[in-house]
Amino acid sequence: MRFSLLLFFTLLLLSACWLGCTKDAVETIHMDTTITNNDPPPYFGVSEVQINNYINRMYIDLIGRAPSQDEILTAHDYLISHDLSAAAKDTLIQQLISTRSYFNVLFSLTSADFINGSDSALIAYQIAVIKLIYHYDSLAGNTAILIFYQYELYRLQKLQDVTDAFMNGSISVNEYFAAFLDNYFYDQLNMGTENFVKAAFGDLLLRSPTQSELFNGVTMVDNNPAFLFQTDGDSKGDFVTIVTTNDEFYEGLVIKAYNQLLLRDATSQELTAGTIAMQVSKDYPAFQKELMKTAEYAGF
């Protein structure tokens, strides 16, 4: 009996100790995991760093430079005050697209793709050279060749003016890219009709021509009647117009935009939808803007 009572009190004491220890342990764990000054991030988890990274990326992609600290603060405050809305992003992107810097960057990128990065200074130099040759041949009475100089000057001057013309809306996106295809520098880089046709397909449509397309393209550029993309033509000018106005031209612009801004290829669904949008609007800057408003581009 005494043994049983002793055992009973012993067990009771151990239970009390165990319960007391458990309570202390729970309290200690609770205290250790309490973090002060840990306010939740604003706007459903979008951090300051994410917002600033978005602004920085936007500036670099559109106008070729990082924003200043003041520009970051202004854009950041604007986005915050408008709850990071799509409309707020649209406004900021449009402000950059409306600048001369945007069109200068677009020229540089397109020049790198088409004419080996030839810049305005080189274009002006080539114009001056041809004008000088034109002058001396005119004085020497070589009038028969003057028409070729005039042709080259006309094409180079269109290339020289392409940035201003596109910026003020006096030419379309089709005419903009046609100017990079139809000029002295492009001809020098892609000598021979066959090379010219292959290069045009590669630079605009981002693929090689089929044998039929190559044959008809060469025939057309050599001033003979041919049929390309369901369109008749019989000159180099006709060829340039056809390859810068067909459905695949707009598809090529969509591919370029996805690769430049999202750093990936468009899915088949995105490619189809984007091509249709480009065909309707013919507004490449607006298409870029739509991609830059997405959560994928912004990072939030």
Tell me what you see in this structure.
The longest helix has 31 residues. The N terminus is likely disordered. The protein has 300 residues and is mainly α. Strands 1-2 form a two-stranded antiparallel sheet. The protein contains 18 helices and 2 strands.
Short description:
This protein has 300 residues and is mainly α.
Shape: globular
Rg measurement, Å: 33 Å
How many strand segments?
Answer: 2
What percent of the residues sit in helical stretches (DSSP H or I)? Answer: over 70%
List the quaternary state of the chains: single chain
The helix/strand series, from N terminus to C terminus, equals HHHHHHHHHHHHHEEHHHHH
**Segments where pLDDT lies below 50 for 5+ residues?**
1-41
Q: Compute the number of helices.
A: 18
Overall pLDDT score: 90
Give the DSSP E fraction (strand runs of 2 or more residues).
under 5%
The biggest beta sheet reads: 2 strands, antiparallel
Strand order, sheet with most strands = 1-2
Please give the alpha-carbon distance between the first and last residues. Answer: 74 Å
What structural class is derived from the secondary structure elements? mainly alpha
Key descriptive features of the protein:
globular; mainly alpha; 2% strand; disordered N terminus; 300 residues
What is the fold's blueprint, element by element?
Elements: H1 2-32, H2 42-45, H3 48-63, H4 69-81, H5 86-97, H6 100-114, H7 120-139, H8 146-160, H9 162-167, H10 173-181, H11 184-189, H12 193-205, H13 211-221, E1 226-228, E2 231-233, H14 236-243, H15 247-262, H16 268-281, H17 284-292, H18 295-298
Antiparallel strand pairs: 1-2
